[in-house]
């Protein structure tokens, strides 16, 4: 089994007596309330999805990640994992003391063992991580909305926020056990925030011909307006797997995670996460984790050249399309025919058809998948 990033799977979930003691010590602790995205970060740190992080980055790691795309230890890491707080709140917090992190309704979520608090430059954060300071970029907009002080230190999870998708949620120690039970030595991870069309299916199956197992890992969490609802992504994948995939070769679990839309940097982050789940390979397609036209179509593939020590192998794919001459799903690497023979998989066109209540052509979307989408009253985020 592939080693977790940094060599050790982090487990900072409080259980049994430790959890009971922690709950008893909460009274009087200063509190910082987290939104749903921040809660998913806490849970991902505690369950090892973000190994080797044990909590929010301090200034040293933060600076290294911005400047070198590595932690202070030199381990590859591209996205800052930080907790912001208003100056008025931060002023009342003392490094060395504990802080209670709660959900939006005040329920205890985790304890932060505060080690440091520090200021930061939002424009620099945005420019280095997102390669732009354009406030129209959703990741940049989020950074601009952040409070002025960052709090660093390890966390201990008291209680993960319940979600409607808990039955589809697996922690890295569980996926690793699952892969082992299935006898998979090599596993390719597929990151998605969409319902599957046949182009996705062929990318996944092409990758699966090279390895033992396929781990489909949709991101669940806040997404942009017009994106498919989380339950639709899940039900459409269940329909696809049931009808078209070899069950013994396929696993499906959700990842509670906030998309940053950081393109290349986020592609590396996605790879690290899948490595922690036990994947030996990850599929990186065109404009992975991108948004708009901020990143060149294959920038998220090229960046892997800077990380020969990543420890998980990226499998790069170009966009697939249906060729009427080849009579199959191909890419420009394997089909010599011109664009006049091609039917492209365009997510927006497929979505427009579905919005009108029409089934997309079977060359584009499996009918069972289209049905799973249409069965939901309103399949898109408003
Ligand atoms: Zn062709």
Structural description of this entry:
By secondary structure, the chain is an alpha/beta fold. It folds into two domains: 16-157, Sulfate adenylyltransferase, CATH 3.10.400.10; 166-374, HUPs (Rossmann fold), CATH 3.40.50. Helices cover 32% and strands 18% of the residues. Strands 1, 2, 3, 4, 5, 6 and 7 form a seven-stranded mixed sheet that branches. Strands 8, 9, 10, 11, 12 and 13 form a six-stranded parallel sheet that branches. Helix 9 links the parallel strand 9 (213-220) and strand 10. It is globular and about 70 Å long. The mean pLDDT is 95. The structure holds zinc ion. The site of zinc ion has 7 residues, from loops.
Head-to-tail CA distance between termini? 41 Å
Provide mean pLDDT, rounded: 95
Domain module count: 2
Major sheet summary line:
7 strands, mixed
List the helices and strands and how they pair.
Blueprint: H1 16-24, E1 31-33, H2 36-46, E2 55-56, H3 59-68, E3 83-85, H4 87-90, E4 98-102, E5 108-113, E6 116-119, H5 122-130, H6 138-145, E7 149-157, H7 172-181, E8 187-192, H8 198-208, E9 213-220, H9 230-244, E10 250-252, E11 255-256, H10 263-277, E12 281-284, H11 299-302, E13 313-316, E14 320-323, E15 328-331, E16 342-344, H12 347-355, H13 367-374
Parallel strand pairs: 1-4, 8-9, 8-12, 9-10, 9-11, 12-13
Antiparallel strand pairs: 2-7, 3-7, 4-5, 5-7, 6-7, 14-15, 14-16
Helix pairs in contact: 5-6, 9-13
This protein binds zinc ion.
Summarize the structure.
The protein has 13 helices and 16 strands.
